[in-house]
Amino acid sequence: MIMKISRRAGLIGLAMTVMAGAVPAAAQDAPRYAMLVRVLGNTAFELAHVGAQEAADDLGVELIFTGPTENTAEGQVNLINSLIAQRVDAIMLSANDATALTPALRRAAQRGIAIVTWDQDTEVDARTLFIASATNELIAMGPARIALELADGEGDIGVISGPASSTTQNLWVDELLRLTEENPEFAGLNVVEVAYGDERSDKAYSEALGLVNKYPDLEVIVAYSSVAIAAASQMVRDQGLVGQVSVTGLGFPTEMVDHVTSGATPAFAIWNMVDVGYTTVEATYNLLNGDISGAEGDVIDAGRMGEITVGADGVAVMGELFVYDASNVQAAADLINSVSE
Amino acid sequence: MKAMTPNREAVLSLIIVAIVVIVIVRAPEFLIASNISNILSGWGFLAILVMGQLCVLVTRGIDLSQASVLAFTGMFLALLSQSMPGLPAAAFLVLATLMGLCLGLVNGALVSIVGIPPIIATLGTMTIIRGLIFVLSDGAWISSHEMSDAFKAFPAGAFIGVPQVFWVALVVIAVFWVLLNYRRIGRDIYAFGSNPHAARNAGVPRIRIELLVYALSGAAAGLCGYLWAGRFAIAYTQAAEGREFAIIAACVIGGISITGGRGSVLGAALGALFIAIVESALPYLRISPFLQTAVIGAVILFAVAANARSERRPGRQILPRHKQTTGEVK
Q1: Is residue A63 within a helix (H) or strand (E), and if so which, with residue range?
Q2: Choosing among A43, A202, A235, A270, which should be mutated to test the B contact, i.e. which has the most B CBs within 10 A?
Q3: Does B240 touch chain A (CB under 8 A)?
Q4: Which of A27, A43, B7, B120 has the highest Cβ tally under 10 A?
Q5: Which of A276-280, A303-307, B105-109 has the lowest mean pLDDT?
């Protein structure tokens, strides 16, 4: 009996998810969108918050910004449950676990809450739309292009990822390896080793030092982690290797100013998180208004970001990474600082 | 004759030498000067933390909040250096130690005065302090260009080619060595840890001892917090998260008894050296990163087991042994 009821509830929920696009948001007050980040206290998410708030203000939406203090799936599940209880209209999340959140998200969907992921995706059927800042290939390609330039077309490069268990970071590394093997443009890059910095400054520092000591011909260190790129740059400066070994990768302008001006990191790439947050709210608004359903070929009207077409599996890709170097990093850092205050 | 009976420290030293030899055979570049200097600074950080933890463990306590205190102090001082760029490194060293000491006193008060079990009290402050870092920084990182030069110069610097962190650790070890071995309060700490009831009956002040050991542990963590933030030129919310494991592992390897009463400054310093060497050797050994944590765990278990064998006592003594007794009390 209980099985039957819950199954029926599930069916209703399923119907509601399908209809979520068609049913306009509750009309009483301003619709409430919850933005759920992987962990509080990360600059990337703070910036996404800035962009999301901008879009929310434009659209007259109330934005709830939240996230766990520790980067765990349990933390996010608890918050999803609490957001369900608060009856928000949409949950826009950067998932810290690809599978563990699925049951909680299904419960939310059953109650008619629209689920949109951004930055890091969940399982495809646990959400309607995924706003990808770039594809894994584009993310891998950003630092790879810079590395190619720093190594003058060919040379040994060492890679530092985050924790060995981090899905996304390692997907980027896999893409980089694939690019160097299959794409003739990147064939000159010889990846000597992939090390793991575990998002800890001291570990990443030791790993970077290890790379330099093990491979005397190393030309570039590519770090797919904002902790590792800073630690590797610090190592290069401490060891007086500026000019011999260059660091590049994914980093944030505010955190990299010193390393760029010192020459340790001549250039690095990152997606613009402000734009990601902005686009996510715009897309969610489209979805709840019934302008799009998340199907392939739907066109999102993303305000100042223009139009973005939804691809297969409800994935909407924003575009290529932005490159920062000595010419623009200080200005970008100042801008971000002024915006966040 | 004394050298014939192997003691913990000697066995541990041999294990460390054996590991270093194995690593060098497999990866000679392990011996490059820059790596040795990296090991010395890694050891320095750990050794300072371990000295504080040693005192707490000897009193049958545990301090899980050290890594949080480290991150909090690092963040606070980084912010301070941003707003007061004129402060000299000495001021940061003193402030960091004092700030850690105050945070440690909170732990001490919770344990000794409020009477909360140490593991719960410090688990609580561990999360609270970690949360406070977020409140303090608003979640932002303090990066290299936002810190004053004086702030970074000392921790990143070197004296006769050896990182400053190493020298600071030597001073800290000397202080703890004198405190625990040549001061009355040191003997009180051991007495209290061996048998709290007997110690109390003998007039050892429980509250004062517990306040002191947690304050020392906090002070060590605070000092480390400044050195850490300056060394890596970064202060962020998750700094040193999970380091508690390495600290306590170093203590256990160093022969410090989790049940209190036993543990030496030398053993603790060697335990820290063991962890520092194993951690820095992993990148050179090209061990699969998926296996690394398992390898560390296995090596630690092995070291503890080998170490424990060298000091196995034949049985538990129940009745007090009198001086005039000649035979074994069974």
Answers
A1: strand A62-66
A2: A202
A3: yes
A4: A43
A5: A303-307
Considering only CB atoms, which chain A residues are within 8 Å of B130? 69
Under CATH, which architecture does the A136-270 domain have?
3-Layer(aba) Sandwich (3.40)
CA-based nearest residue in chain B for residue A239:
B34
What is the side-by-side order of every strand in the sheet holding A32-36? A62-66, A32-36, A90-93, A114-118, A129-132, A315-317
Domain A2-134+273-318 homologous superfamily, CATH: Response regulator (3.40.50.2300)
Residues in B touching A238 (Cβ below 8 Å): 156
* A136/A76 Cα distance (integer angstroms): 24
0.95 surpassed by pTM: no
Domain chopping of chain A, boundaries = 2-134+273-318, 136-270
**Which residue in the set A201, A254, A261 is minimally distant from B232, CB to CB?**
A201
Q: Where are the alpha helices (DSSP H) in A215-300?
A: 226-238, 253-262, 273-289
Task: Count CB-CB contacts under 10 A for residue B178.
Answer: 12
Given this chain, do its domains A2-134+273-318 and A136-270 carry the same CATH topology? yes
Quickly tell me which residue has 């002040």 as its tokens.
B205
All structural domains of chain B? 29-309 (1.10.3470)
Q: Using beta carbons and an 8 Å cutoff, which residues of A are at the interface with B? A: 39-43, 46, 69, 164-165, 193, 195-196, 199-203, 205-207, 209-214, 227, 230-231, 234, 238-239, 252, 254-259, 261, 340
Q: Which of A43, A70, A174, A201 to mutate to test the interface with B (most CBs of B within 10 A)?
A: A201
Q: How many helices (H) and strands (E) does chain B have?
A: 13, 4
Chain A contact present for B140, CB below 8 A: yes
Question: Using CB atoms within 10 A of its CB, is residue B79 exposed (0-12), middle (13-18) or buried (19+)?
Answer: middle
Whether B154 and B96 have beta carbons less than 8 Å apart is answered as no
Considering all CA atoms of chain A, what is the largest pairwise distance in Å, rounded to the nearest integer?
A: 72
Q: Nearest Cβ partner of A258 from B34, B143, B290? A: B143
Q: Which residues contact B104 (CB under 8 A, 6 or more apart)?
A: B52, B63, B69, B214, B215, B216, B217, B218, B219, B221, B222
Inter-chain CB proximity B140 and A254 less than 8 Å: yes
Are the Cβ atoms of A206 and B238 closer than 8 angstroms? no
Q: What is the pLDDT of residues A29-87, one digit of tens each?
A: 789 999 999 988 777 788 899 899 999 999 999 999 999 988 888 899 999 999 999 99
